[in-house]
Design goal:
Two copies of one chain form a homodimer. Chain A is α/β, with parallel strands linked by helices and 378 residues long. Chain A has helices at residues 5-10, 33-47, 64-72, 83-93, 112-121, 134-146, 172-180, 195-198, 203-226, 242-245, 264-269, 297-300, 347-351, and strands at 28-31, 53-54, 78-80, 103-105, 127-131, 151-156, 185-191, 233-236, 253-254, 277-287, 290-293, 308-309, 316-320, 325-328, 339-343, 356-361, 364-370. In chain A, strands 1, 10, 11, 12, 13, 14, 15, 16 and 17 form a nine-stranded mixed beta sheet that branches. Chain A has an eight-stranded parallel beta sheet with strand order 2-9-8-7-6-5-4-3. The interface between A and B is large, with 73 and 72 residues.
Chain lengths: 378, 378
């Protein structure tokens, strides 16, 4: 990964301004910027009364333009999922206003090559990462000192999701000590992402799981304080739990991201946000009640939830192949040649399949916003 | 989609020649060119005694270098799944030796914009597409005449997969007549892809389903001949059925593609081919028997079959998150910081997530081969 500057990423941007969305080759990724802006304002307003601040997760949209809108609306900085995202967003948003764009990599890193990319990105914007072991801390320290920079560290605690993070809080004090004495590292606090809670459909059940996650975070914070370290940053929360987790005064920042774009999965927990991203597809043909579309798993992703057709709530997915999907639709429309808009089952993996959003207002393409920071991209 | 020439696609290629694969940032897409070449030779040899020829499906690898190796080994041309693939492969392989690179788009198209891309590509190499209705034929005819070119047409018949294609063979003669009299179209024959058969684990069951599919194709061919059109091309078959479908003298060409790279899904039906593509990932940490890796659905895809760890047959997938997966592994290795290689559950969707293959020989990167023709790419 070399640095190329924002211009390098835009060099190949297709000039489709003024083209009707209905005249785009399909499948195509479409963004409604007004719905996205409304979601951003609505979320910013919801954070008004909360003690926590929003550090929105860019993994959901991978788009510098959307990240800038979030920062302008008061976001505390950005959260990333991968070193490729950190590198891309440091380049595109690192110089943004008032140092607000500090980048949190809300994941651990254990590859020397990845840590080098991260330390290089830290030259453009302050970077913090999650750590769960002395081995990870040692590797991060080496990369930071080698690059002559500093990396912030949040100690990751498993709050019930069962993925990464310390399971045994007795290991917290020794790990904090190891981080604190490591050159190039700056111990900032704790992270505990309640991924198992954010996706629960029942708000009561989400509340229960969040309470359990917060109990672990409070215990971890007490442990850290006993070891002589004040957790200045405590990061947690997603779109489905932001107002529950963000209401606890211990939590200083929330990682919600998917509220900007929305999809079938996130509509279950967060119907107050509008769907800003869709995939345009063309009906290839009709066989009785079955319509076959030219968008499949390579155009929509295919995980977590089945896609839906916007405006056709009675359409039911019958299959999702590599380059096709099929829906049964009552009535005789749509027909071969018609364009439909699909709501993604899970937008973050769908967006990840495209190099551009076509920004569409009143049916006309008004711009192309690059998708950045995908795996393997420089 | 504008044409840029092969050089344009390579301009941003990272120069990683000489870097050990173990020092690449992860996740990374790795290609073993020797295994891929062996698979290509082995498949070419298997076609020796068959009446059908191989027109390999590039959707599996999306790689001009691999397509050229296939053409050099005697492939009849290339099969594509999307207009983006046709545009990219026309540009990269259109001028290849002896006109052998005619491109079959083994799918229907019903969008005017997509048909324009296709007609434009036909200037670089002969292009044929599948058609199932007079509406599709009319749209294709318009695009071809508008571009001053000609498109070949295969009438698609549903041989049991239940996706696209004529269900009622009584519609075949009128459709053939419509195609034959449409300016800019050239009726070439029939297509009937037995997608429902290729994935059956049992060879006996595959044989049964192929027999059923071939019966439909024979009936369709008879219908076409009665209408006065000799099917010069009859296209069918995949990696799991190539030798069954390709043994019928009616079938002139086979669309198999996944044999080049292989994955967990295709190993079930076609274990004679070697695994040429893997995803390198780093172990982030270990929690008892559970190891957590820095590769998830955005790095591996996540459909059809779970991924496996190469060389660790007893490792069992526990979860596949957006950017992580977890395996239980007996013993104490691998550990945090170790790199492992993952065999994709389904390679075509995994490859589609990356801009490059890192070509690796004896543990050293010897080149980067672009992945081309992804959705939205020009």
């Amino acid at each position: 990964m070399t640095t190329g500057g924002p211009e390098a990423d835009r060099a190949g941007e297709p000039d489709l301004t003024g083209v009707p969305a209905a005249a785009l080759p399909t499948p195509a990724l479409l963004l409604d910027p007004d719905v996205a802006s409304r979601n951003i304002s609505q979320m910013a307003a919801a954070f008004g009364p909360l003690p926590a601040r929003l550090r929105p997760h860019v993994k959901a949209h991978k788009c510098a333009e959307l990240a800038r809108l979030q920062l302008e609306s008061g976001a505390a900085g950005l959260t990333c999922a991968t070193v490729a995202e950190v590198a891309a967003f440091a380049r595109h948003c690192g110089a943004a206003s008032r140092g607000a764009t500090a980048l949190l990599l809300a994941n651990q890193v254990a590859s020397v090559a990845n840590l080098r990319v991260l330390a290089q990105a830290a030259a453009a914007a302050p970077v913090t990462l999650a750590v769960e072991s002395p081995e990870q801390a040692a590797l991060a320290s080496l990369a930071a000192t080698e690059a002559g920079t500093e990396l912030g560290v949040l100690i990751e605690v498993d709050v019930g999701a069962g993925r990464g993070g310390l399971r045994d809080l007795a290991q917290l004090a020794p790990l904090a000590a190891a981080v604190a004495r490591s050159p190039g590292l700056r111990l900032e606090g704790l992270m505990g992402y309640e991924g198992h809670a954010t996706s629960e459909r029942s708000r009561a059940r989400r509340r229960e799981l969040v309470a359990g996650a917060l109990a672990v975070l409070h215990a971890a914070a007490a442990e850290l304080r006993r070891a002589g370290h004040e957790p200045r940053v405590v990061s947690a929360g997603g779109t489905g739990t932001f107002d529950l987790t963000g209401a606890d005064p211990l939590v200083t920042e929330i990682q919600a991201g998917s509220y900007v774009l929305m999809d079938v999965f996130h509509q279950e927990t967060s119907p107050q946000f509008g769907v800003a991203v869709t995939v345009a597809a063309t009906v290839l043909g009709r066989h009785g009640a079955l319509i076959v579309l030219d968008a499949g798993r390579k155009a929509l992703g295919g995980d977590l939830r089945p896609p839906r057709i916007a405006g056709l709530p009675r359409a039911e997915l019958q299959f999702l192949n590599e380059e096709h999907c099929g829906f049964t639709v009552p009535g005789s429309a749509p027909r071969a040649g018609d364009q439909v808009r699909l709501i993604c089952g899970y937008a973050p993996t769908a967006v990840n399949l495209y190099p551009w959003y076509h920004v569409v207002r009143d049916g006309i393409v008004t711009g192309c916003w690059p998708v950045i920071g995908r795996h393997g991209e420089r």
